[in-house]
Amino acid sequence: MELSEKVVVVTGAGGGMGKAISEKLLAEGARVIGMDLKEESMKDQDHSQFTAVAVDILDEEAVAGAFAEAHKQSGKIDGLVNAIGMAQSASPIEDVSLELWHKLMNVNVTSLFLTSKEAAKYMKKQNQGSIITIASISAVRPRPGLQAYIASKGAAESFSRALAIELAPHGIRVNTVHPGPTDTGMLGQFAASGADVETTKKQIFADSVPMGRLVAPSDIAESISYLISDRAAMVTGAVLHVDGGRGL
Ligand SMILES: NC(=O)c1ccc[n+]([C@@H]2O[C@H](COP(=O)([O-])OP(=O)(O)OC[C@H]3O[C@@H](n4cnc5c(N)ncnc54)[C@H](O)[C@@H]3O)[C@@H](O)[C@H]2O)c1
After folding, report:
1. Which residues form the signal peptide (predicted)?
2. Quick check: CB of 186 below 6 Å from ligand 1?
3. Which of 48, 52, 183, 228 has its CA at 20 to 30 Å from residue 9's CA atom?
């Protein structure tokens, strides 16, 4: 029960990785405040230490309110895991609308700004904290047709490193995890329109991983539990590839 004193906010807690991360943190004894668009997406997490909060992470006022409530209930916020995100269906750049570009940037980058801003406010007062952003190995090992998604993940990594240097004097660590293709509901959404989703998952994604299989959400959760823990006390500004070698 290494994390028994920790209070951790997990965004995207109703998603494939968010669920596995919440489960792992709860199993390690942490108190978890899960945030996602709909409360019902978090209903599987039936645990006395888990609180589900329905909130649109792009709504600045609602996010501030959700963090204030979490802090009021728990007295502190030790960790923030940014696990929300949105996929792009592989498409040539000429077919990508400005509207989709903005949406991807908002969900995958602006969300990080809004949650990290709130977390930093509370963590600075405590002089400690750990913020982790799930970006993507595609930021450094791109695939064709995912230009907007990949740009958003590159921004997520840069933002994380910028915060790491800014917040280090306050005892707050900020790290990035780059997953390879991971077996969640999102993976099929990267398929080109009209392409068979299962074939894409196997032939484009699983076969591109040197270790021969898709990443499991639990693989990501293991890395998060380490980065939240005090074992990672001197790890900040790091970019951890949990990708079975896809980035090589
Ligand atoms: N699955 C993959 O292959 C893969 C690979 C690399 C990186 N990633 C990244 O990992 C993270 C988690 O992805 P996942 O596979 O678990 O996806 P997922 O689609 O299963 O989960 C994403 C969650 O984010 C939530 N969300 C989206 N917009 C929101 C908003 N405005 N407010 C609140 N919640 C919102 C969704 O409701 C969903 O529950 C994402 O950042 C994704 O880009 C995924």
Report:
1. none
2. yes
3. 183
99 burial (CB, 10 Å; 0-12 / 13-18 / 19+) is exposed
Q: Whose CA is nearest to atom 8 of ligand 1?
A: 136
Pocket of ligand 1 contains residue 244 by CB under 6 Å: no
SS3 215: strand
Question: Cα–Cα distance between 39 and 36 in angstroms, integer?
Answer: 7
Residue 136 Cβ contacting ligand 1 at under 6 Å: yes
pLDDT by residue (tens digit) across 145-200?
Answer: 999 999 999 999 999 999 999 999 999 999 999 999 999 999 999 999 999 999 99
Domains of the chain: 7-242 (3.40.50.720)
